[in-house]
Each structure stands twice: as C-alpha cells, then as structure tokens.
C-alpha cells in the first residue's frame, strides 16, 4: 500500500500541470481560437513564479506572478491574432519560441538556486484516513485549484449564459456577431484565461514538481496539454482523465529506470510523447467522435463588419 500511495502521489504531481494547462486551452479553443503557444506561456509562468518567490519568500506571490505572466503573454498572442488578424498557428509557434528564449534569459541568475516549495494543505482528521488521507487531503493549493478549475469550467460552459455565448462564438462567429455578441472581446477574455491557466501550470512546475529553476523545464508539457484537449473532445472532465493517464505514463518511465528495467533510457523518456502520438492517431480514426464537439470556427479569423 505504501508503494501504491507513493506512486499515486507522484502521478498527481505530474498530472496537475497538464490538467490545468489543458483546461485553459480548452476554454480558448471553445471560443474558436487555436493557441499553440501553451508551452511558451507555461515556461514563462514557471520562471516568473520562481523569481517572484525568491524575491519575496512567498510561494503564494509566486503563484500570482505565474498567473499574471501567462495572462500578459497571452495578450501578445491575442493582439497579433485577434486585432491584427495574424495567422494563429504561426503566431502560437512564435510565442512558444519567444517564451523559451525569454525565460532562459530571465531565469539565468536563478539557475542552481534552491527554491521554496509550496506547502501542503492538511485537512484535520480527513488527512489521517489510511491511504486516501494522504492522497486527497494532504496536497498543495494548486492541486485543489485544478479540481475547482475543472468543475468551474464545466459549469461555466454548460450551465451559464456567458458560457453559451462563448460556445456560440466558437461554433459560428458570424452568427454570434449577428446576434449582437462581441466576438473579439469574448475571444480576448478566453485567450487571457487560457494564458493564466498555462502560467499557473508553469508555477506548479517550479514550486511543486521541482522547486527550482531549470531552463526548458516545461519539457514539452505544453504540447501534451494541446493534445489532451483533442483527446478529451473539448469536454472538461475528460481532461482530468486524460491528464492523469498521461501523468501515469510520464511517471512509469521514471519507475522503470529506477527499477533497472533493461530498456534504453531514451526510449523510456520518449514514452509520454509516443503515447500522445498514439492517442491522436487512434482519435483521428473516428471522425464522428472528433467532429461532435470540435468548435466549427476553430482557428478561423474573424473581422467584424466596418
């Protein structure tokens, strides 16, 4: 039981940033915007969170800094794609490259420094429950935020009037505009929300997963988060299942290496990305399932009538 508990705790830590980043991108794509810059926003959130924590001594201020940095970085994407109507795919890729380079420059003075880990929140009595207590009731703030985030997004998209408007913009921006919905403003807010979530996911990497700054520490997680949105068919609770599945795959290669399994370490390290490709291939075989929830206006630019 002790080994299983340790594995579950590690999987939760590995899956949380994937769930948060994918949840934010899901809202962005539901509005009809395809932002491939998740990786860049995550790494910027990681370095800004670490720098703010080192400067103030408070990981909670670090979390706030990560969220703000991701949201501000997403504004650049929004300005280029929504106001200047630049190509969304090319802009997202440029945003990732910019984030990786800029984070390396900002984080250079912090390389090798020991970070301040985000403390756990312990629920009295509940945390003493055998097995489940430590797994569910002795976690850090970001884990609980990830669960609340998924529940909130599900309610917003399918139970609120504002969520209905956002989905209508993603399904047909021309029709939404004709009905008086401000398409550009809706998409700006969705893009900023996605950026804030990516920044929060990055903060988890430098404050919880590995409490230190390492260049390129996002290690492709932003791309996995993008794949998770498709895997989940743009449904919030499926993001949780997919995130923990990919988290388990990521951790399995560490345990395999630790137990001395005679498999090349490079192959084991590639397992999460091989799993991503495999899942996308399997999903693409069922076009009906893919098209059911895919926003019809995804990636299409919108220019309002003058």
What does this 3D model show about the protein?
The chain is mainly α and 306 residues long. The protein has a single domain (2-293), classed as Orthogonal Bundle (ABC transporter involved in vitamin B12 uptake, BtuC), CATH 1.10.3470. Helix content is 72%, strand content 2%. It has 14 helices and two strands; from the N terminus they run ααααβαβααααααααα. The chain has helices spanning 2-30, 38-56, 59-83, 88-107, 132-136, 141-159, 161-171, 173-178, 183-209, 221-231, 236-258, 265-269, 271-284, 287-293; strands at residues 120-122, 138-140. Strands 1-2 form a two-stranded antiparallel sheet. α1 (2-30) packs parallel to α6 and α6 packs across α7 (161-171). The longest helix is centred in the first third of the chain and has 29 residues, at 2-30. The radius of gyration is 19 Å and the shape is globular. The model has no long low-confidence stretch (mean pLDDT 89).
Essential attributes:
306 residues, mainly alpha, ABC transporter involved in vitamin B12 uptake, BtuC, two-stranded antiparallel ribbon, 2 strands, 2% strand
Give a quick precis of the structure:
With 306 residues, the chain is an all-alpha fold. Helix content is 72%, strand content 2%. It has one domain: ABC transporter involved in vitamin B12 uptake, BtuC (Orthogonal Bundle).
What count of helical segments does DSSP give? 14
Overall, the morphology is globular
Strand content: under 5%
User: Helix amount, in percent?
Assistant: over 70%
Assembly classification: single chain
Cα distance spanning the termini: 65 Å
Strand order of the largest sheet: 1-2
Reading off the top of the CATH hierarchy, the class is best stated as Mainly Alpha
Computed CA radius of gyration, to the nearest angstrom: 19 Å
Q: Name the average pLDDT.
A: 89
Please trace the helix and strand order, writing H or E for each element.
HHHHEHEHHHHHHHHH
DSSP, total strands: 2
How is the CATH topology named? ABC transporter involved in vitamin B12 uptake, BtuC
> Which spans of ≥5 residues are poorly predicted at pLDDT below 50?
none
